[in-house]
């Protein structure tokens, strides 16, 4: 997982270099945003000649999915400064890796270790990609398909649960239906709407048990 994030970071650094970003801006953006797709969206819009405001809005839109990740991590993250640090380091991979723990303590340990390793890989890879510049060919590395495969492997165990599987399938259908027509990053955010009927179902089932 860390190697894959490093490769994606190399691609991000190379794209930022091609878009005219200096090294310090590339590294600072990677360290502050730590969203992966958000940084790639930002530099991609700038590279295509888009206005900075649209680049920022695109990055924020893509990172909106972290709201759901934060809800999951907040269930086991210790109170205090570590909660705020976890909020900053939350992403797809660390959330999925943490959820595999059996207890809250194990979940926090898995999340913390993966978050630190991936942060180093992301920021370090971004710097290296910027320095290597045009030497890296992201398309040839196949990074556009590698990350979805990695994420699927991380959550494959959860999909064996019928309720989680149906909820995930509903989100996937929403995302696939909107991808051809929605702005970049919006489809994955709209997929979170599948959580609403799932939450309603759980609430109704809880009330039924109480009555």
Task: Name the descriptors.
single chain; globular; 211 residues; 13 helices; 76% helix
The largest sheet, given as strand count, sense and whether it forms a barrel, is:
none
The proportion of residues in beta strands is: under 5%
What string gives the helices and strands in order?
A: HHHHHHHHHHHHH
Radius of gyration: 18 Å
What's the pLDDT, averaged over the residues? 83
* Rough outline: globular
Strands, count: 0
Calculate the terminal CA-CA distance, rounded to whole Å: 45 Å
Low-confidence stretches: none
Share in helix: over 70%
Number of helices: 13
Give the helix/strand class. mainly alpha
Describe the structure.
The protein has helices at 2-18, 23-33, 37-47, 52-63, 66-73, 81-89, 92-99, 104-132, 138-141, 143-155, 162-178, 186-190, 195-210. The chain has 211 residues and is mainly alpha-helical. Helix 1 packs parallel to helix 3 (37-47) and helix 5 packs parallel to helix 7. The longest helix is centred in the middle third of the chain and has 29 residues, at 104-132. The N and C termini lie far apart (45 Å).
Give a concise summary:
By secondary structure, this protein is mainly α. It is 76% helix and 0% strand. The longest helix is centred in the middle third of the chain and has 29 residues.
């Amino acid at each position: 997982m860390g190697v894959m994030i490093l490769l994606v970071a190399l691609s991000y650094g190379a794209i930022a270099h091609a878009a005219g970003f200096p090294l310090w801006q590339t590294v600072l953006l990677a360290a502050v945003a730590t969203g992966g797709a958000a940084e790639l969206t930002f530099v991609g819009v700038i590279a295509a000649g888009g206005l900075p405001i649209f680049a920022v809005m695109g990055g924020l839109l893509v990172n909106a999915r972290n709201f759901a990740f934060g809800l999951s991590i907040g269930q086991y993250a210790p109170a205090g400064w570590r909660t705020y640090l976890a909020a900053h380091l939350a992403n797809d991979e660390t959330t999925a890796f943490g959820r595999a723990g059996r207890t809250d303590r194990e979940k926090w340990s898995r999340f913390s270790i993966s978050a630190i390793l991936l942060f180093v890989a992301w920021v370090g890879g971004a710097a290296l990609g910027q320095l290597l510049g045009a030497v890296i060919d992201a398309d040839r590395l196949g990074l556009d398909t590698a990350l979805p495969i990695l994420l699927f492997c991380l959550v494959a165990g959860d999909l064996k649960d019928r309720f989680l599987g149906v909820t995930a399938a509903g989100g996937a259908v929403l995302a696939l239906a909107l991808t051809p027509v929605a702005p970049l990053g919006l489809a994955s955010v709209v997929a979170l709407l599948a959580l609403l009927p799932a939450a309603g179902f759980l609430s109704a089932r809880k009330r039924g048990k109480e009555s």
